[in-house]
TrEMBL record:
It comes from the Bacteria. Transmembrane segments: none annotated. Coiled coil: none annotated. Keywords: DNA-binding. GO terms for molecular function: DNA binding; DNA-binding transcription factor activity. It holds the Pfam family HTH_5. This is DNA-binding transcriptional ArsR family regulator. Residues 1-94 form the HTH arsR-type domain. InterPro entries: ArsR-like_HTH (IPR011991), HTH_ArsR_DNA-bd_dom (IPR001845), WH-like_DNA-bd_sf (IPR036388), WH_DNA-bd_sf (IPR036390).
Length: 108
């Protein structure tokens, strides 16, 4: 497993961060909007957003009308490596379970 995938899984380990991902899946939002929706203080939301950025899941930008505001959005293609790892792991387990079933049924 790569270090980037480890960071991504670490970022997704927290339920507040997973909920933030769900909210960002609906539309881009400011940190203040996310904090309000999650019932978090701004410093706590900032820490969660930093973890999501370091995990490669979200990115931020400034709207043209106000450079003081950051708008967060899901990063395109961020979960490609995660999806590949899950597919490979699922295939491994399927093969192992099929082999075990053959063994138990006497087909070795």
């Amino acid at each position: 497993m790569s270090a980037a995938l480890d960071r991504m899984l670490g970022a997704l380990a927290d339920p507040k961060r997973r909920r933030a991902i769900e909210l960002l899946g609906e539309r881009p939002r400011s940190a203040g909007e996310l904090a309000g929706a999650l019932g978090l203080a701004p410093p706590a939301m900032s820490r969660h957003l930093r973890a999501l950025k370091e995990g490669g899941l979200v990115e931020d930008g400034h709207p043209t009308f106000d450079a003081r505001v950051r708008i967060y959005r899901l990063k395109d293609g961020a979960t490609a490596e995660l999806k590949q790892w899950i597919a490979e792991t699922e295939a491994l387990w399927s093969d192992q379970l099929a082999s075990f079933k053959r063994h138990v049924e006497g087909g070795v």
